[in-house]
Fold:
Amino acid sequence: MLGEGIVRGLAETARNFFGSFAEKERLTTVQFPEERRVPFEAARNFPFLVYDGDGKESGLRCVACLICEKECPPRCIHIDKSKDKKPDFVGKAQFYPAAFTIDVSVCMSCQICVEVCPFEAIKMDTAFELSTDDRFAGLLWGKDRLAKSNEHYHAIHPTEAAEVDERRGQEKAAAEAKAKPAAQPAEAR
Amino acid sequence: MISSLKEMPREAGETGGMAGSGAGSQLLEVAMGPHHPSTHGVFRMDVQLEGERVVRLKPVFGYLHRNHEQIAEKTSYLGSMPYTDRLDYLCSMSNNWAYALTVEKLTGLQPPERAEYIRVIMAELTRVQNHAGLIGFLLQDMGASGTPLMYAFREREKILDLFEWVSGARMMCNYMRFGGVRVDLPEGWVEGALAFVERAPRFLDEYEGLLRNSEIVMARTQGVGLLPAELAVNAGVTGPMLRASGVNYDLRKVDRYGVYDRFSFRVPLGEKGDVYDRYMMRLLEMRESVSILAQALRDLPGGPILDPKSKLRGLRPKAGEVYGRIEAPKGELGFYLISDGSTNPYRYRVRPPSLINLTVLEDMCLDRSVADVVVILGSVDIVLGEVDR
Structure:
């Protein structure tokens, strides 16, 4: 009979319409500004620089090795290496970034800087409400805006951050163990 | 013949010609697109009409050109991986796989078994969401505004959640690496995917029942946009479009790349090669994909996810050339690389299925009306990010 297919299709529409009141499966949206979904642990948006302790400037893990600057596919990272050195978490003298700038209007959130960083210094943030009316300076993030604490890292990616802390703790212990035998003969003398 | 056109002064160089029946008839040139909801992106069709009948159709593209291949030749092998997400931005996982597969051929890296299974799972999830979305768009072009598309996007959302859970991004996943995948599946992911696979048949039944038997859809699609098998093969058309014309050619069966030889699945084939066949092809392929997903999730082995010889930075493959291809949701997606032994490819070329499937558009549209052109284009399944690169 002509029109039978259309009626059968409308029955599916009705099932979906009334079903959306009963089943969570059929109504997957949330009322955004009031309701918010918890982001996934792996979620990523733009990079940030991790610092340890309280020193936003002094605690930065970044040693200005320029690997991320070279590997960044859209070349959105710009680093100025410092002239002097300062000790890092194991006490080794390292350079630090005199300036670290990310142009987030160019950044494509690919996470390659995070993967190539050997110092666990750059990680991905999950903040996404970042609109600004200043499309030049407002999207060029310097060290002050990029630096975020290790606690913040723990809050957004707990599993990953715990692994990183463990690895860094081991490195530090190994460095101290290595430093001791070198120091003891000096004392004995 | 449009009588009002007869009196219009003819501009020099414009569509001269006395084609058609009446002596005074003139062709009307219409630019469909680049900004039009039915053109699936910034795509223009210069259509020459005689009344409602299409006499010539010229596809014009390049509005979304981003210099993908040249950029890839200037950046490291790893640096191109996130750019491949942006080729066919609906199927980033498949694009990642095709590129990773090509570089693995070049370097001899061997992904572990678990990584191969994860890749199959991701590619089939991509296929389901691509086909569901495509059918939604196709039906919307026919006037079913919104409803089928929203049902498709509701299910697609669940797949994108699975992608975000594992890779951190919904669409630009950047998940595969040379010799494996970037991170292992998080805890609970397999259960989440299994829950989706369990519910998928019910969605597919509903989605099929919604308009499959509708008289309007049949009238608009059956016998429209015929693509003979011979022309499809000669033009290099691949994917569901080729199979809808009745040619049994699926790279998952032909090349058996990855671990596809371990799954039992069927390749649906069409008979006539019209829009209805292509529509049904996608519906049937989604069912087969769901069956592959169920098998892959059941057999998913443990173990490492990355070849130990794989390294992120400073990859220098031996000099040579290689062509790698996979069956992407839209057809054969191939990457052609020439290495000169340095850290970036000497030549990098993409064989995009969308672009090559588009070459038969004029043959399918000739002698049809404008309304049919919209439906035929919808059935080709193009993404302009891939056509223009």
In short: Chain B touches chain A through 40 residues (CB under 8 Å). Chain B is about 45% helix and 10% strand. The first strand of chain B starts at residue 28 and ends at 32. The two ends of chain B are 40 Å apart (CA to CA).
